[in-house]
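Look over what follows to help learners.
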Amino acid sequence: MTQAPRSYDFICFGDEVPGILAIISAAREYRRRTNRFPKSLLMFKASSQNGVGGHLVRGGLAYLDRSSVPLHIRQQFGLGDFGDPAAIYSEFLTRVGVRKVALDPARANLILRQMLSEAGVDILSQVDVDSVSFDGTKIAGLTLKRGERYLAKQWIDCTVNAELAQLAGVRKFPGYANLGLPNSELSATLVFETEGLSPATLRSTEDAYLRRFTNPNDREAQGWIDIAAGYDPVFRQQIVRDFYFSDGRLKRMDIGVDYIDVYGEALSIAYHAFRGTKMDLATTGSMLDNANVAILPGTHRLSWNCLLFFVTAQEAEALARNNAQPTAAMLNEMSYVERWYKSLGATRVKPALELYIRHAGNITGAVVPLPGAQMMAGGVTAAEALGSFGYAFDARGGIHGLQDRATALGVPNLHFKTPLFNIGIRHTLLKNIPNLAVLGPATGFDGGASTAGRIVEYNVAVGQAIGIAACLALLTNRALNSFTNREIRDVLVATGRLSKIYGVYDAAETANVALFEKLVGVPIYTV
């Protein structure tokens, strides 16, 4: 028996935090204009029993990547440490109780559910899509394999691999095909929590390792360095040099109010010596990297972002389609990590339920693709900006083959300054599907842009604006892909939600990034 379709105004496919806050933004704007909430649905493939909030919740990524704003800009504009985030992101962080960077996944799940409920957004999990139906070029609805049909006027795809867009026929280039590397991808991480290890204990442990590693007469410790270097003398020299900052100080961890930044490789070397593996991601397939550690509520409860896994583009796509479930090999490596951390004094070591997949390709056919050079040029103009954001071009774990390709093509430099750029939405909108926005790492980034643009804080700012655009599209019967940045900016201004604008155009560095993208890039946006 065919079930009657369930109709909504807005559907967000994928429960990454930017998508959740985008559909909440749409619902709130609709209510502001009509005095009633629209019919909205958040649907995703995972089970809501394991939490709502994508890789920040089920993936356990408690250490938030925050906007990087130079001190002189902060002083000039009267900004806090992380600039002026989108209003809805500031609200989310405040309600969760984030002091600087540490977000408790359990608390985030609770607050996201509250915010969705307040905005009248339904939640549907364990979704398995059978087909997509169209009304002309617009997405009309989805049919699930269990027979249910869901219709909507406006759609947001907030999956790491643009899965809804792919189901709708949007072409996506795997990995870094737009840099000529279709098989290469950023590393994936299995975040884990420890209990029983205090920050003070960690610091004393690192200090003890540093004393031993920098003592050439400690034969046992020097042997550990040999193991971590894979008995490669050149790599060994690099490791030894990297014990020190440029001013000669030892690289000791920095302990903040809710975070620990591990700058040196002492802990990583000790782990790889214990494991008997080379401290090299591509060679070994996994690596315990310098850790970003979030200090969470509880008895010495720490969240670790440091266990990297080498994945190809095809593997990243497959992992994303399989609910970001870690493979047996990944869980095997995690068992060694657990054993080693317990040897340091941890009483409990628990991996997250899902992987943190940083990137899984990018869609083609964006209305206005966004390359890294435009980020370095300051993004969209100040007159149309929806906010500002700064982040390094951060390819954690590296993009395999990029250095060799760049060298072969005569690229003079692969190290660029951190862009500080103004935010727009046109890269998320599609030329050929007028009622779909793709939000997140798989959106219409070109060149190296995704390495900076994949960050949650940035995509929430974009998502806040996409939500407003989706509301306006619904109420005015216009195509979502017809809306300009300036139209959305006007709404943010009128409602007192426009963040301060402080993007910076760096002419020399823009030329450097543009040259890099021109030499190594593949012109994929030709449709």
Observations:
- The first helix runs from residue 17 to 34.
